[in-house]
Write a structure and sequence with these properties.
The chain is of the alpha/beta class and about 425 residues long. It is about 30% helix and about 25% strand. The two termini are about 25 Å apart.
């Protein structure tokens, strides 16, 4: 048991066993924790509100399949995510295709999924779609004209969505086409931990939608009011209070009947279920502090969302740590030839030894798929799901394919990897 306090309930023995059997680096996902988060969300929000899972947070099929089975929809922004959503079992009528660009391949796929709704990000994209003869219903993404309290701010200064003053151009395009606009999409930003800020975003988004509907003289059937619910990464942060958000959504759902409200969540569902496991391979010093080098790094867990994880996040847990070890400020350095490859800076950790495994919490969202995995050609981590009754491989460890290199192949198995089949369910 580590002297560091685990931010969520988890079987540290299960994490240690994953490291022994499958090696490191590895991503481990606690399916029971994921299900508890989904149930918490379901119990707090009104049943009339449809929750879409944003695959950009984590598109791993094994996790997406479970989320689909629990009745959530999907929000996708590329042909790869769209195909992953369908493979995971999300029904076409519960998929929203959004993002600033839909490739010809994605539009071709969508043409065979007429039940899937498409979110349009710009006037230019609306013109393009008008020439594609799609039968899908569309919603217009509106650029927020109100202040956002999100860490990942997508308020009035955002690049996404159609500014209100450009809606008149949209009306002219719609009048000259067969496109069917059935609603609107507003997203003010992500990683919001203040429930009242989330409530303000929701009401401001609904007011913006109402003004847009009046201008375009339409009665919306679908209102995607965003989401952006955050999770605590730092020790001084607390879980988001869902109760006022649920009350606000219930009120808004009554106001806009018979229109249907959607919200889109990624990080909130999956972040706390994930762990990044990496092993200490060398000792170092940095700025006069003790430091260790590990076999992972920011090529596998990048701080894509700018949360400053290296200095703010809860320290990693040392699996199989010696009890009552004194803590001291320590750096955890990655294995890359890159000065910025630092996973933890001046974090309080016990004395560390070669071979110790560090488990970084809150790694379920924007982890492997959001990292520069091709940089320097290291093998990609294995991904494992674990739950009360066992564990299973979601993605095997893969060798990295560099430009001009040979065809993809599996890396050499790590010690103990030959035992995989014995523990699969």
């Amino acid at each position: 048991m580590s002297p560091s306090v685990a931010p969520v309930e988890v079987s540290l023995e299960a994490l240690a066993r994953i490291a022994r059997i499958y090696g490191t680096p590895a991503y481990a996902y606690d399916v029971d924790r994921l299900e508890r988060q989904a149930q918490r969300l379901r119990s707090a929000l009104p049943p009339s509100v449809q929750v879409l899972y944003s695959l950009k947070a984590n598109p791993t099929i094994g996790l997406c399949r479970r989320i689909a089975e629990w009745g959530f929809g999907a929000e996708v922004v590329s042909i790869g995510e769209l195909q992953a959503a369908i493979q995971a079992g999300f029904p076409a009528h519960r998929v929203l295709a959004s993002g600033p660009y839909k490739s010809p391949e994605m539009l071709g796929f969508l043409s065979r999924m007429p039940e899937t709704v498409i979110s349009i990000d710009s006037v230019s994209e609306l013109e393009t779609l008008g020439r594609c003869e799609l039968t899908n219903r569309i919603i217009l993404r509106l650029r927020p004209d109100f202040a956002s309290s999100a860490v990942m701010n997508m308020g009035a200064g955002s690049r996404f969505g159609i500014p209100f003053e450009e809606l008149e151009m949209c009306r002219k395009i719609l009048d000259a086409s067969d496109l069917s606009v059935v609603g609107f999409h507003v997203f003010a930003g992500s990683q919001v931990l203040d429930a009242q800020a989330v409530v303000r975003h929701l009401y401001a988004a609904q007011q913006l939608v109402s003004r847009a509907a009046d201008l375009l003289q339409c009665s919306p059937e679908i209102l995607n009011l965003g989401g952006g619910l955050g999770v605590p990464y730092a020790a001084d942060e607390h879980d988001l209070d869902l109760e006022p958000i649920g009350h606000a959504l219930d009120d808004l759902a009554r106001r806009v009947e018979p229109a249907k409200i959607l919200i889109e969540l990624g990080r909130y569902l999956v972040a706390q279920s994930g762990w990044y496991l990496t092993k200490i391979v060398a000792h170092q010093t940095c700025m006069g502090r003790p430091a260790v080098v590990v076999d992972g790094g920011i090529h596998q867990r990048a701080d894509l969302c700018g949360l400053n994880l290296r200095t703010r996040a809860v320290p990693p847990i040392v699996l199989d740590a010696r009890p009552e070890e004194p803590l001291r400020a320590t750096d955890v350095l990655g294995c890359l030839c890159l000065p910025d490859d630092v996973l933890a800076e001046a974090r309080l950790l016990p004395a560390l030894s070669l071979g110790d495994v560090l488990a970084f919490p809150n790694a379920g969202a924007y982890g492997l798929s959001a990292s520069p995995v091709l940089f320097l050609g290291h093998p990609q981590p294995v991904e494992i799901a674990f739950h009360e009754s066992g564990m299973e491989v979601l993605r095997e460890r893969l060798s990295c394919v560099l430009i001009g290199g040979p065809a993809s192949s599996r890396a050499e198995p790590s010690p103990g990897e030959s035992m995989q089949k014995e523990v699969l369910l």
